[in-house]
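Good morning N.,

You mentioned wanting to compare the apo and holo forms, so I went ahead and generated the holo version with succinic acid. This is what I fed in:
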Amino acid sequence: MDIRTQIGNVLFDTPIMNASGPSCTSKQELFNILFSESAAIVTKSCTLESRTGNDKPRYWHNNKLSINSMGLPNNGYKYYVDVLKHMSYFSRTKPYIMSIAGMNCKDNIEIINCINSTIHLEKVHFDVGIEINLSCPNIINKGQLAYDFSAMDFYLSKLFTECLHDKIKIIGIKLPPYFELHHFKIVADIIKKYPINFVTTINSIGNGLVIDIEKEAPVIAPKEGIGGIGGSVVKQTALSNVYNFSKQFIHTDIKIIGCGGVENGSDVFEYILAGAAAVQVGTQFYREGCHCFKRIRQELINLMKKKKYNEISEFYSKLYLNDVFDE
Ligand code: SIN
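and this is what came out, ligand included:
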């Protein structure tokens, strides 16, 4: 059974990796992911300087959903570059994807240039990727750039003109969910202008509200209880975003990483059918810890065996390619 997948020239042993967000902020957490069955190590979105993030409580979940308004707490990008350098003393390797969320384009250019020169100067034997987070919904008084199409285009044009990224194997962007069908073409046409290898879709559905009826209050504190929604309730929106982007990217090399409500092997199967080359696990990883990667991988393999598939390419994007409603 071959469940390897590829994005750009980076090979992943399985299509299942952690999502940026839960349990990927500290060095210990990132080492736990290195030694787990996750296909890659995706870091917490990092900024130029460290951040403590929003007030607590800022995360809550039940068995259907999560809400967070973390506000990008992280140790600053240099910390994540140092973790990468430290990991390079170990023989074990897997793709290391740094999620970056600089407060402006200049910050992200500085971060990317530093990552690029570290790979160049140090003995880094990891395939290093970058996921540019353009969709955090939790920064007070700052909107999600990926909802402002002309600003996003301008931002990417400046970024790719000014940053050095020749040593970085793959670059992707993390998008928020879109809800209007014509938006997929607008966003895809912008993305196609730049050397972008993958799109991660979706970040949490921004600005939701979860209420505790005992306390008659929101379950989280920042932004009057408003935060990003994740977990199984967002899966259908995420699948549709994967599917709609996959149609836009069908004749390109741009790959899609599906994210949102992945809890078991059949979720992964659905995402791959819809056009995802890989998936990320967020809320379920937070609930279950690193064990989820092994369990979900085994469930995917069991399902593939039952359906007599030997490799992912046999059902990848099949929903579109075998459009059953075509007359
Ligand atoms: C956060 O730190 O607020 C979450 C990051 C994100 O949703 O992009």
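The chain has a mean pLDDT of 96.

Happy to go through it together on a call whenever suits you.

Best,
F.
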